[in-house]
Amino acid sequence: MLTIWRDCHRGVSTLSSKFEEILRNCGLSDWRTVRSVEPLTGGVSSDIYKVTLAGRVVCVKSALAQLKTEERWCAPVHRTFAEYRWLSFAAAQSRGCVPQVLGYDSVNHAIVMEYLAAGDNTTWKERLLAGDVSKPFAAEVGVRLSLIHAASFREPAFLKEMDHAEDFRALRVEPYLRFTAEREPAAAVQILHVAKHLEDARCTLIHGDVSPKNILCSGYGPMFIDAECATHGDPAFDVAFCLNHLLIKAQHLPACAGALKAAAGVLWQSYAAGIDWEAPENLERRVAALVPALMLARISGKSRLEYLLPATARLVREQALESLTSPPGALSDLIRPDK
């Protein structure tokens, strides 16, 4: 995406004209004052850079056409616009729930945001894997997510603009569900039923990637990042996507299993308290159907979890298949301590 050259007179790296163009297109008046650029790690779908200007530091994110996964996985780069719109909408609903967005460059499909130092903003995934499980934090995740979903339901014109069904299919339905169905014939019918529903559903604005790795533990509480999959869809997907991670981590960390399942329970309860666009029990049924499909996808799909030991992966797969072929009566059946 960019080229860096050495300014021999000053002895510092400067950005190429292409990168300066991105900053200029985003309306940053100090685009000429770049002092350094540093690639950041994390994630498989984008190139992300820390850019130091004369008086501040910003983050520049640009989507990749070919994701960094073992299986071939391509997606349209214009998905950064969906992320920009989601972040902007969420920022208006809850203070501090997303990073400050500074601009969007439609020419280069890039977003410029405030830079958040890693040491001050650890991911929820890092804390959970370290055994730090906070029920109040999980509850606030549910509150904020419900607030964003509810607010978007009242904006039908905006939702119509945010219908990115093809992007969602390429980033979520195909790699997570349809790909998994091909490799898990015993549960293919159930998985494909869920996949078809997600392709057709239109209810609220959804983030599409509410994973603990995309939730920062900031001074303002949970902060959502990486909304490339945002679309007009089924809010059950966002809830299930997050709960699935908590339940898998309960298998990965047996000593924290009770705390992680309790956190999953309070996340759902706090989320459900804000549902005002449909009957909560209807949404709960869809979440309960989605969770095991997504758990299986993290074992057999294109985006497999990197931290699971083989024995744990087998256990997660067995439990997901059992729940898919013998569906739970309620979400509580998936979260209960003995499950």
From TrEMBL:
Domain Aminoglycoside phosphotransferase, first and last residues per copy: 37-272
Name this polypeptide is given: Putative aminoglycoside phosphotransferase
UniProt GO molecular function: ATP binding; kinase activity
Family (UniProt): Belongs to the methylthioribose kinase family.
PANTHER family per record: METHYLTHIORIBOSE KINASE (PTHR34273)
Keyword annotations of the record: ATP-binding, Kinase, Nucleotide-binding, Transferase
One Pfam short name: APH
Superkingdom of the source species: Bacteria
KW Transferase (keyword) present: yes
Kinase is among the record's keywords: yes
